[in-house]
Amino acid sequence: MLPITATFLDEISHDIPHQNWGKKEWDSDFAYMKQMGIDTVVLIRSGYKRWLTYPSEVLIKEEGAYRPPLDLVALFLSLSEKYGMHFYFGLYDSGKYWWEQGDYQKEVDVNLKVIDEVWAKYGNASAFKGWYLSQEVSRKTGDIMSLYARLGKHCKAVSNNLPTLISPYIDGKKAILSNQSTLTKAEHITIEQHEKDWNEILDRIQGAVDILAFQDGHVDYHELADYFAINKKLATQYNMQCWTNAESFDRDMPIKFLPIKWEKLLLKLEAAKQAGLEKAITFEFSHFISPQSAYPQAHHLFNRYMEKLKK
Amino acid sequence: MLPITATFLDEISHDIPHQNWGKKEWDSDFAYMKQMGIDTVVLIRSGYKRWLTYPSEVLIKEEGAYRPPLDLVALFLSLSEKYGMHFYFGLYDSGKYWWEQGDYQKEVDVNLKVIDEVWAKYGNASAFKGWYLSQEVSRKTGDIMSLYARLGKHCKAVSNNLPTLISPYIDGKKAILSNQSTLTKAEHITIEQHEKDWNEILDRIQGAVDILAFQDGHVDYHELADYFAINKKLATQYNMQCWTNAESFDRDMPIKFLPIKWEKLLLKLEAAKQAGLEKAITFEFSHFISPQSAYPQAHHLFNRYMEKLKK
Amino acid sequence: MLPITATFLDEISHDIPHQNWGKKEWDSDFAYMKQMGIDTVVLIRSGYKRWLTYPSEVLIKEEGAYRPPLDLVALFLSLSEKYGMHFYFGLYDSGKYWWEQGDYQKEVDVNLKVIDEVWAKYGNASAFKGWYLSQEVSRKTGDIMSLYARLGKHCKAVSNNLPTLISPYIDGKKAILSNQSTLTKAEHITIEQHEKDWNEILDRIQGAVDILAFQDGHVDYHELADYFAINKKLATQYNMQCWTNAESFDRDMPIKFLPIKWEKLLLKLEAAKQAGLEKAITFEFSHFISPQSAYPQAHHLFNRYMEKLKK
């Protein structure tokens, strides 16, 4: 299997209930990540609607965001340094400008200021090693291509060309909103259309995005090999790295979401290995794999993974 | 922040899965409550449909209720005495007369008998300090004003004027039934209409209800200050205490429900402090804050809360 | 109460998230089962869609099933021997032929091969004591009668007449799919229609099915006595044993599913005792009753059950 060597940090969470950890728990979680072989942590988003991971004067002023009780960006950077990991900073997701209002320009404008603010505030931290463009799409939604291109370029410009990452999803039969009760949908993309769309998108964002990490949970397990092959081919064509975002939660169950069944995760990591993908990042370690997760299924998933890794 | 000094006891539960505790676990839970500073426990309802917290001959005979294996009212009263807490008794909720059938008269009639039965059975317990009118509404639903007035007056009449509590909710954008999968709704109340409604309701129930404790989870966090101010103003005008019902579960997540994110609870308690509310009761300690909750997120929430309290 | 002396093993699970146990955890779970008095374990299904509990060459070849990382049938058989339990093998559920396509013939055909394969592979294990026909229905759906008759007869023919078990559900008001968010439905069966249907079904499958274990969770608690009486009468009439499938998860809560409230399980087991049912099997021990379940509510349910058992 392709080993998991990166994880998202799901703060601010969009749909996964919070574990209410403090500094001590985050420190021990990074120690568990290290033990598993994780060398890269990616903050999924620095803010979502009015919730923030760091006291952003930009977002407090312009978006009416709440001042957070703890600066998680500073904490994660210091833990990344302590444990020798690379930290990627995830941009702000308004949860409205590009979602409801279709106003991608406004989403770009506020993020340009966030990028400047964050680089000024934390750019000198030695663990700051990249950027995550947190707007996740599956198709050419709205002006997403322009958003990726402009934000990616600005991230790279301010930071001496640190790498930028996106993690789109495939519009497969399991592409369901987490607050819908169903598990699958009838209308979904064909592999041909997927290739056509992403050929066009990658062409437009080449140079602004360095790493393409498709989420692996929206198509059926036996369909993954074909999608992985297309993604790898396209990434190579546009000079990007091709990672897999190996989801460690289970999309097939009515509780949305608990840790994935080990056999499913293994199947996906084997397929990723087979397709020659370069790195596996998981969404995400702390809820779904960590030995200290609130979900005990995660503790056993960690053990199953470690048994396999050591074989 | 306004400290949490009261909690509901969610027995019989309407939509929160049961923890299957026995006497020993309840005893240690009361010890944890005490440690957190809780001085008041409010039984959310003594019965719901056919489920009972105590062996009510009235409800077994008239409603076909099941005889419970354990008398929780007796247990909670004895633990309240042991730990020096005030116990409020929650009335019976038929789950049908006032819900489906709109027959508020029947809901009142059965509860008048319950009040008499309970006071005869447990009224001499020194911890019995108040009543909770368990029918929860957000607007002038049906004959709710008359129900509150008649039940509240009867509670006070039999018990030498012990205080009565209600805990309505605001018909905000997050007023969604727990068995609906969505998280928000488009049609919701304006603050002007909320004030108008409750001005009329409180006018009608003055003298029958002593404490008004609105649930704090149905409007957005930044809207709370305005609603708290209105609620406080109205309560003062009608000679009621104004508490906040600080919900400790998270309404923004697809799993309905797990413990709330600490930052959200803190924001709400800060706003309640700011508005001069008199006391915070939470729904509820045992699932969502207790160090022995089945949800480990609650254990960390307890620690975060205690850290803040001791600052 | 009628004691629980059998449990399903929910591998492959249809809608209950996986606990990610390895051999060690399964061994200790069987020890807990033994402690509770369980003498029979029933594999709910040996395969579901492409997921398998054992490396079935038939299903890998014909259904494109995934080769499993662990042979659970071999493991469960060896643990059954170790702990002196009877093991029943659950047939394959395609999740499509009889569901979507209404092609019962194909469901039968593939299962005839599975039966032969399994008996050849594991039939000499001393713990192999019966069969479970895993297609669960509530009415005369499609050609279910013919499916039960043909599969049951073949199971018995290859195995020197080992007993066969089915576990239908009552089409009651709580017969809701787990991926629907609601809890009840308006249209449901009458007890008269239930009796009429099952009289016809049992008449057709007599001789092929030995044990009838209706699921007990789809009607209201006070309706159970009447349904149990009908089921017992019909089973006796057609020379079948009548067990109850005592569901140990809670169907009345928005989280689908967590462990049932002890009082509810007790009520159901008391009613089963009253009706003279012969044995109680639960769905299922490992998630909802086990002291090592990922759901701590289960640990307390185990304690409550054991307290009652020892009285």
Q: Gyration radius of chain A, to the nearest Å?
A: 18 Å
CATH architecture of chain A: Alpha-Beta Barrel
- Which segments of chain A are poorly predicted (pLDDT under 50) over 5 or more consecutive residues? none
Tertiary shape of chain A: globular
Strand content of chain A: 5-15%
Oligomeric status: homotrimer
Task: Give an account of the 3D structure.
Chain A is built from 10 helices and 11 strands. Helix content of chain A is 41%, strand content 15%. With 311 residues, the first copy, chain A, is an alpha/beta fold. The first copy, chain A, is globular. In chain A, the strands form 2 sheets. The first copy, chain A, has an 8-stranded parallel beta barrel, surrounded by 4 helices. The first copy, chain A, has a single domain, classed as Alpha-Beta Barrel (TIM Barrel). Chains A and B meet through loops of A and helix 8 and helix 10 of B.
